[in-house]
Amino acid sequence: MQISLQALKAFDAAARHGSFKLAASELALTPTAISHHVSKLEARLNTQLFVRKTRKIELTELGKRLAQATNSGFQTIALALDEITHIGKLVNVNTTSSFAASVLLPSLAEFNAKHGDIEVAISTGESVEHNQYAVAIRLGDKRMVNSQDILQCDVFNVYRAKSAGEQNNLASLSHIYTCKWKNPDLPPVPLTQWCNQNGITQALALTQYDQELFALQQAIAHGGYVFCSQTLAKSYVARGELCELTTLPVASDLCYYIPNKSALATLPARLFSEWLSNLISA
Fold first, then answer.
1. Do 102 and 139 contact (CB within 8 A), yes or no?
2. 15 Cβ neighbours under 8 A, 6+ residues apart
3. Looking at the structure, do residues 72 and 37 belong to the same domain, yes or no?
4. Per residue in 69-88, pLDDT tens?
5. How many domains does the chain fold into?
6. Rounded (5°) CA angle 200-201-207
7. Longest Cα pair distance anywhere in the chain, in angstroms?
8. Rounded-to-integer distance, Cα 162 and Cα 243, Å
9. Among 85, 109, 126, which residue terminates a domain?
10. Paired sense of beta strands 150-161 and 242-244, if any
11. How much is the pTM?
């Protein structure tokens, strides 16, 4: 049976207000139009929904049953529309603490300036969940990741803190802050390859953390050297807190990626993904 949505809306408003006049005011129609919609609905259902009196209308028993259903149904629709509208203005970003602190937060004002109507909510954790409504930024093995999902393949080098002395004084390089991932499935940082590539033969003392953020912060705090990715070091270099050595950087099997990037379901999520790709590839 085909029932007009407009007729159901007219009936629902009249049932809630107990008045065709008040229903008409709510729906920006005339009382005659409301009465006409309700009459057509009654004819379609072959039953009386209202008892019409001189100054008011009253629901019949069958009218009460229908009113309960329409009221519940329209409330459900309204809640769903509110939720979808909210999702359409929000980007939930899940990523690691290191990426959030070193890449996202220093540059987020740029995204906000371009898309002021989109709210960005960032949550962190080393185990990242993802869905089609959120942007999950993960660190992984590029050999195991769909190439279309990759944001950046990481390149590593040594950086010195501003107070660490001469940039190219490699002979005195004896201690480095770096990372040893908690996740055994991640490729290790390519420090051995870097040493071989740059002819570093002296033994290096290492202080290792399970997050790059900690290694970066410790190097800055103690005027030391840190072996880390260009992706995370970039913002510290821009602020003058770190300086990249003029050594040869080394490629790694590590990459940042967004799982199922092409399947992101909302426009804000897609806009954020596009902005992020441009940000870290610059």
1. no
2. 59, 63, 66, 67, 70, 71
3. yes
4. 999 998 888 877 767 766 67
5. 2
6. 75
7. 101
8. 7
9. 85
10. antiparallel
11. 0.69
65 contacts 57 by C-beta, under 8 angstroms? no
Closest Cα to residue 171, out of 199, 206, 208?
199
Q: Which residue has the tokens 């954790």?
A: 125
56 lies in the same domain as 152: no
Closest CA to 258 of 281, 242, 276: 276
Residues, the chain: 282
pLDDT means per 10 residues in the chain (282 residues)? 88 93 92 94 94 89 95 86 72 91 92 90 69 82 94 95 68 88 93 94 93 95 94 93 94 94 86 91 78
Amino acid identity at 280? I
Residue 165: per-residue pLDDT: 62
Q: Which CATH number is 79's domain given?
A: 1.10.10.10
My answer on whether 192 and 254 are in the same domain is yes
Token representation of residue 219: 């190097």
What's the chain look like in SS3?
A: CCCCHHHHHHHHHHHHHCCHHHHHHHHCCCHHHHHHHHHHHHHHHCCCCEEECCCCEEECHHHHHHHHHHHHHHHHHHHHHHHHHHHCCEEEEEECHHHHHHHHHHHHHHHHHHCCCCEEEEEECCCCCCCCCEEECEEEEHHHCCHHHEEEEEEEEEEEECCCCCCCCHHHCCEEEEECCCCCCCCCCCHHHHHHHCCCCCCCEEEEECCHHHHHHHHHHCCCEEEEEHHHHHHHHHCCCEEECCCCCEEEEEEEECCCHHHCCCHHHHHHHHHHHHHHHC
